[in-house]
Amino acid sequence: MTAQLGKIGIWRPHTDLSPELAVEVEKLGYGTIWVGGSPPADLGVVERLLEATDGIAVATGIVNIWNSDAKAVAESYHRVTEKHPDRLLLGIGAGHREATAEYTKPYTALVNYLDVLDAEGVPASGRVLAALGPRVLELARDRAAGAHPYLTVPAHTEKARSVLGAEPILAPEQKVVLDPDPQRARTTARPMIQFYLRLNNYTRNLKRFGYTDQDVAGTGSDRLVDDLAVHGTAEEIATRLKSHVEAGANHVAIQPLGEDPLSAYKALATALS
């Protein structure tokens, strides 16, 4: 059975997650903790978060197929779900070409990885794929419970829903900056956005949705930064998050940028309630 994600979750690198933070996030009413930054195949961090909490779902966002052996991940999946049934969603993806020396024929490698998970008894209903382009979105539709796109905008969400169809999970990640001052918010967001603008899979995808070479050059245009890291008051951000839902998302995973993410979680939980 697929884990119940709720409408809004949090996305944090696995190195920035702790059982204590998980407890606080669950108290605030979030539905899912997304464990980002290519968590190890043993899923130890996932298990610790689940053990510390009562009912919140935990999803990987994402296990990198180049770094984590499929059989090892399958073994971990079964170990964790036996202890915590219906609370784990396995997010899987091929990462990006520039970060992995072995990155060749990623689509084929992803298909092969899914074949191993199938053989090891990991159900399609227990996994989602990091999907940007149409081909991997179709794979997410046909061989997983849905898709977990990263660094996207509502226009992509709308397109992804049209490819996936009505039933599959569509859970985009959305960066946010809780700051009503646009210039200060952009200063906070730009280092993170700039990192991804060096990666071809993300810039190619953004260009599919109307962003220009100038938008994705350097540190990114103001327009691009504002769209990829929505900013403002908690109420303004909550309104922007609804754009993904209106475009077809079942769930939105928010990633606050800045030095105090817990304060952002608290403010947004109130605005989103």
Automatic annotation (TrEMBL):
Domain annotation Luciferase-like: ranges: 20-117
EC number(s) per entry: 1.-.-.-
Keywords, in A-Z order: Oxidoreductase
GO MF annotations in UniProt: oxidoreductase activity
Oxidoreductase among keywords: yes
RNA-binding is among the record's keywords: no
One protein family per Pfam: Bac_luciferase
Gene3D superfamilies from the UniProt entry: Luciferase-like domain
Sequence intervals crossing the membrane: none
NCBIfam families, A to Z: F420_MSMEG_4141 (TIGR03620)
PANTHER family: CONSERVED PROTEIN, LUCIFERASE-LIKE MONOOXYGENASE
Name of the featured protein: LLM class F420-dependent oxidoreductase
